[in-house]
Design a protein that fits this description.
The complex is a heterodimer of chains A (176) and B (678). Chain A is built from eight helices and no strands. Chain B has four domains: 214 residues, no CATH class; 126 residues, Immunoglobulin-like, CATH 2.60.40; 102 residues, no CATH class; 169 residues, no CATH class. Chain B has a nine-stranded parallel beta sheet with strand order 23-20-44-42-38-36-33-30-28, with no helix packed on it. Chain B is mainly beta and 678 residues long. Classes of the chains: A mainly alpha (176), B mainly beta (678). Chains A and B meet through helix 1, helix 2, helix 4, helix 6 and helix 8 of A and helix 1, strand 3, strand 6 and strand 10 of B.
């Protein structure tokens, strides 16, 4: 087997080297396009996302929410909707509209279940703000399980894990 | 020999591709390190504890249980943090100490404890962001606001370098962690790079950073909306390169003020003259947000000093009674400036004085009992120089020096001038002024008839950059003529002066003195031509005049030339000098100075004594050439119109040829003058 593979490598080594070079060149082109942005035009949703983030940075949460609401029905692809719902949820939560914030995250999770774990911390916060301790605990535990599944060598993961454990312990104390 | 199959090669290519596409988000491997490199936050390096500067790359949240969602007012927040501080648990206590001390902007290091004063300062600072109102999860205060629930990304910045011994080249947020110590027991808080962050550096369609996750925060914003302190709720971690909160603004903060202006306009800070009127205005500025008490007192004082006295930055009460202020009263806040009384007009009658006015308010703030302010106006003569029949040039070096015509940007011509309102009376020159540096308050083309170039800048070289209203009448000329090496013309054939003191009325011819010389008064008879060369300093203690003026013919115009390789000092009583006076520097940087008022060799009158010692007018019928001319006469003042020093440059100076002329004839066959006359 090894001898056969070695013979294949020997016979096609030039082709393989060329393929490697082509792949590396392609990777460079992809990076260039990603960072130059010259080959893609921003959509209305993209622009709204950026504007909403700027408004959030400035502290104008109502305006951020308004910008995103304006394009809510313009998201076409699943990826675009998944991103937009996340931002709409945050903007609604920042504007004090907790039910809408939760609703947008639920929509997002229906589209892409892989985001459930990522959003669990924020969703737990919404429920905690609403006074729904049980739901908050459920989300925090979901988040904890997710972060505990990650490699624990990273300080950020360690910090989040200990924070979630502390929040859970405190909320469980409140429940009892 | 190692051989690779097709699958191996494909996997290798894929790895290469992935590694090339996402280098920015590859995790940084923690390695053994020690503190070093740039500070990244709170005055500390990466992974290095705020209190003890110890390094630990493992950690917990700053506070074990974070900040509950129910905490959304400053009393709740303060109570929560104080609870941690006094919990007796090392982790919570350290986290609270870190939060409190970094929020008040304390530098890193010991002590770790929070003093009672620091705790009060922190509570007041936090409260100042919420002391006005609260609405919709946002508290508003005099120093800014607090957004209690913000779902947002951690903000990225770009870092590239070696931090605590480990290279980092990536976008990252500054995050913090409690250094649990791994048995080391650091019990401290440090900062680290967190790549879970958002950056607007990316293009719009790349936002948000796909790897970033939103979190819940509390934001402290300043009055412009900038986030100045950011805490992640889940862990109470401060996040970002944060400064401290602002101190609470006092309810009232009174700043007394007195201004002095010349009646009719003009700045009195440059000194006033006898006969002018100074207007003092009193006011109180309240930089606080609230009004001062109704019984706030304010008192004005007058003080007059002989000579020059500087205004005190922290004056004491006392002096004569100033004008009524209308106090006690309350002063409104929010930077309201309240004038007190009317304008106090003071007619200046005595010179060489300092007139001061001060104003005191009490209380100045809730904790400052009194605050005072003083302004002083110097009453002084403003003597000036007048040059008739010739030019003034500043900046030319002796011709034997390198770059003698172009490299002296400090060469300025400076005087006192009354400006446009008074026809540019005062310091001036009838014809041109050339300066490599500034021409300040010295008018050119002064006193000429109709059709002449306009005063004060018409004959300024250069006059491309002028602001006459501010006294800038020109200057910054590109080059001026170099100065002849007068001392170098000393002829071999000369008589030697052995005495240290001689009359100026020497015999015709060239005289040389090696060493200092005192020149006493002398009248130079018609036809006499005297050149005196001195290798030393010269003190002129008497008038040097041409005798029998009005009786000369073109062939017997007298001539006196004094050429000194050193300095020339002129006694206070000397009122007239006829001829050419040269003080030449041998190196271009020292010596070569003419002092128009001095009590002896190397003894120019001290600046504080000029008013009393140098009040005689000096008339020079001829010219001065020197590295520097110090015009020290204080005869009269600007407002009188009489110059302290007058230079009359007439043909008498050049019609008579020097006695040491080596070639040619001694007189002219004919003379004519053609424009331009400069």
């Amino acid at each position: 087997m090894v001898g056969r593979l070695g013979r294949l490598w020997y016979e096609h080594r030039v082709v393989v080297v060329v393929v490697v070079i082509v792949l590396l060149a392609a990777a460079g082109l992809v990076i260039a396009s990603v960072f130059s942005g010259e080959d893609k035009e921003a959509s209305a949703v993209d622009n709204a996302l950026v504007q909403a983030q700027r408004q959030t940075t400035k502290g104008d949460y109502d305006e951020a929410y308004s910008k995103l609401k304006d394009v809510e029905n313009e998201a076409v692809s699943k990826t675009e909707k998944v991103t937009l719902y996340s931002e709409l949820s945050a903007a609604a939560g920042n504007a004090g509209k907790l039910d809408e914030a939760i609703s947008y995250l639920e929509k997002r999770h229906q589209l892409d279940a892989s985001t459930i774990n990522l959003d669990a911390e924020v969703l737990g916060g919404y429920y905690e703000r609403k006074g729904d301790t049980a739901a908050a605990l459920q989300q925090y535990k979901l988040a904890l399980a997710y972060y505990e599944s990650l490699p624990q060598g990273d300080i950020g993961t360690q910090v989040t894990v200990t924070g979630l454990k502390g929040r859970i312990a405190e909320l469980e104390g409140v429940q009892q | 020999m190692i051989r690779f199959g097709r699958l191996t090669i494909s996997m290798l290519c894929a790895l290469l591709l992935v590694g090339t596409l996402f280098p920015a988000f590859a995790p940084t491997k923690a390695e053994a390190a020690s503190c070093g490199g740039p500070n990244i936050a709170f005055g500390r390096q990466r992974w290095c504890g705020y209190f003890g500067n110890g390094i630990d790359q493992n950690g917990n949240s700053v506070i074990s249980s974070g900040i509950p969602a129910s905490v959304d007012t400053t009393p709740e927040f303060i109570a929560l943090v104080k609870g941690w501080l006094n919990s007796g648990d090392a982790w919570q206590t350290t986290g609270a100490q870190f939060l409190i001390l970094t929020m008040i902007g304390r530098a890193p290091g010991a002590p770790k404890s929070v003093s009672a004063a620091e705790l009060v300062k922190w509570e007041q600072s936090v409260g100042s962001y919420a002391d006005l109102s609260t609405s919709g999860g946002i508290s508003y205060g005099t120093n800014g606001r607090i957004d209690w629930n913000v779902s947002d990304y951690k903000p990225c910045d770009y870092f590239n370098g070696t931090y605590s011994g480990v290279a980092f080249n990536n976008f990252a947020a500054i995050n913090t962690y409690y250094q649990k110590g791994d048995g080391v027991g650091l019990d401290d808080v440090a900062a680290y790079f967190d790549t879970d962050c958002y950056t607007t550096y990316l293009q719009p369609w790349q936002a948000p950073n796909p790897s970033a996750v939103k979190h819940d925060f509390i934001y402290f914003r300043d009055t412009s909306g900038n986030v100045i302190y950011r805490v992640r709720r889940l862990c109470a971690n401060p996040i970002g390169q944060l400064g401290g909160l602002q101190q609470p603004q006092p309810a009232y903060d009174l700043r007394p003020s007195v201004t002095a202006q010349l009646a009719g306009g003009g700045n009195a800070s440059a000194g006033v003259e006898v006969g002018q009127t100074v207007e003092f205005r009193y006011s109180v500025l309240n930089q606080g947000v609230g009004a001062s008490p109704a019984n706030t007192s304010c008192t004005a004082y007058t003080n007059v000093h002989n000579g020059y006295v500087a205004a005190r930055s922290n004056p004491a009460t006392g002096g004569g009674a100033g004008p009524p202020t209308g106090c006690p009263r309350s002063f409104p806040g929010n930077n309201a400036n309240t004038p007190l009384g009317g304008v106090e007009s003071v007619v200046v009658t005595v010179d060489n004085q300092t007139i001061c006015r001060s104003l005191f308010v009490s209380p100045a703030t809730g904790t400052v009992a009194s605050r005072g302010f003083e302004v002083c106006v110097q009453v002084a003569a403003k003597p000036f120089v007048s040059v008739r029949g010739g030019d003034v040039s500043a900046g030319g070096g002796v011709e034997t020096l390198a770059n003698c015509s172009t490299t002296n940007s400090g060469a300025a011509i400076i005087g006192w001038n009354r400006g446009a309102a008074n026809g540019y009376q005062g310091a001036g020159v009838q014809f041109a002024a050339y300066a490599l540096g500034t021409i300040l308050d010295v008018a050119t083309s002064q006193g000429n008839g109709a059709g002449a170039a306009a005063t004060p800048i018409g004959l300024s070289f250069a006059n491309t950059t002028t602001t006459p209203a501010a006294g800038r009448f020109g200057g910054s000329f590109g080059s001026v003529p170099c100065v002849s090496d007068h001392y170098g013309t000393l002829p071999a054939a000369h008589s030697t002066i052995n005495s240290t003191s001689v009359s100026a009325a020497l015999a015709s011819g060239v005289h040389f003195r090696s060493g200092d010389l005192t020149l006493t008064s002398g009248a130079i008879d018609p036809g006499r031509k005297i050149s005196v060369y001195v290798n030393g300093d010269v003190y002129i203690n008497g008038n040097v005049t041409y005798a029998n003026s009005g009786t000369w013919s073109s062939k017997n115009v007298p001539l006196f030339r004094l050429v000194v390789s050193g300095d020339i000092y002129i006694a206070p009583g000397v009122s007239q000098l006829d001829g050419l006076y040269v003080a030449q520097s041998q190196n271009g940087t020292t010596g070569g100075v003419i002092h128009t008022c001095a009590t002896g060799l190397r003894a120019p009158v001290d600046l504080t004594s000029l008013a009393g010692s140098c009040g005689t007018q000096l008339v020079v019928n001829g010219s001065f050439t020197a590295r520097q001319v110090r015009l020290l006469r204080t005869y009269d003042s600007l407002r009188s119109g009489n110059a302290a020093e007058i230079f009359n440059y007439s043909p008498a100076l050049w019609i008579a040829q020097p006695a040491d002329i080596s070639t040619g004839v001694e007189w002219y066959d004919s003379i004519t003058s053609l424009p331009p006359v400069l």
